Amino acid sequence: MSSIATATVTPEKRVDSGSSGRAASGFYGATQNGSQPVRGLREVTSGYAQKTVGESAGTGSSNNGLNAALAQIVQSVTNRNKATGGSKIITVDLAEGESVQEFSTRLRMLLMFMNRDEGSVSATVSPSFQNDTYPAMLALVKTFESSGTSGDWRPDGPRAIRMGKARHLFVSVDMPVADRSASPDTLIEIVAAHRISSEWYDLRVSPRAPSTGMTTVLFGVPAASGGGGADSLHASSVFTNSVFKRERAKNLSGRPGGIHFSRLSSMANWSATTAV
C-alpha cells in the first residue's frame, strides 16, 4: 500500500488531514498527540471484566421495521460474491439516541466466524473514539468471552481483532492511529454517519471500498433534533454536510445497488426503498 495519510488530533478532538503520497491511502493517520496514549484492543481486553456495556436503546414496536433492515444487511454480507457480485450501499434511519450496537457486535462475530478460514476484512467507522469506538470494541470482547470463544480470537494491532484469517478494524474520525492494514473487502459499517462529513469519508474511506462484493452500511439520524438553540443549529449544520445525508439521498433517488430503510410518520411506520 502507499504511504499512510497523516492526521493531527487537536485538543478539541478535531482532525486536520494532510497527505503524504496518495491522499486517501488509509483509514488511519499518524496521531501526533503525545499527551494522551491511544487506547487499543489489548487495553480493552485487560479491563473488560471491570467494564459495563450500555444496552441498546429500546424502541418499542419500531423494532419490527428495524429488524427488517438488519435482516437485509445480514443477507447482503453473507450472500456476497467478491469476484462478480455488485456492491450494495444500505442507509438506515435511526431515532435520536437509538443504538444498534448489539446487532453490530453479533454481525462482526458472524463475519469472522464465517471467514476465519478463507479470510476477510471488515471495518466499523465511528465519529468518536470515546463515545462510539471504545464501547464497540468492549462489546465485541465481552461477547467473545461470554460465548466461550475466548481462545479463538486475538488483538491484531491497536484497533483490530483477528479470528483465523478474518480481521475486523475499528476506525475513529477523532482519534486515528497509524496502521498499514489491508482494505476492507466484505463490510464497511458507518456508525452515527450523520456526524461524519462527506469530505472526510471521501478522503479516508471511499477509496478503499472495492467495486464488487462490498456492503457499506450507514446508520444515522435523518434530521437534526432538539429544542432549538445553538446546539440544534450545530447539529443541523453537521447533518447538512454529512455522508449520511448524501448517501441517503442517493438511495432514495433509486441508485443501483442502493437500499434505504426509513421511518415515514412514526417510529413504528417503516418503508424500504430498493434499487437493483
CATH architecture: 3-Layer(aba) Sandwich
Taking the alpha carbons of the first and last residues, their distance comes to 32 Å
Count of alpha/pi helices: 7
The level 1 CATH classification is Alpha Beta
User: What percent of the residues sit in helical stretches (DSSP H or I)?
Assistant: 25-40%
If you compute it from the alpha carbons, what radius of gyration comes out, rounded to the nearest whole angstrom? 18 Å
Q: What best-fitting shape do the alpha-carbon axes yield?
A: globular
Instruction: Output the CATH topology.
Output: Rossmann fold
Mean pLDDT: 74
Strand content: 15-25%
Overview of the molecule:
The protein is of the alpha/beta class. The protein has one domain (39-274): 3-Layer(aba) Sandwich (Rossmann fold). It is built from 7 helices and 11 strands. It has helices spanning 41-47, 63-78, 101-114, 129-146, 198-204, 229-240, 243-252; strands at residues 7-9, 15-17, 88-93, 120-126, 154-155, 160-163, 166-172, 187-190, 215-220, 258-263, 270-274. The protein has a 9-stranded mixed β-sheet, with helices on both faces. A two-stranded antiparallel sheet has the order 1-2. Helix 2 (63-78) packs parallel to helix 3 (101-114) and helix 3 packs across helix 4. The protein is globular, with a radius of gyration of 18 Å. The two termini are 32 Å apart. 39% of the residues are buried. The model is unreliable at 1-38 and 45-62 (pLDDT under 50).
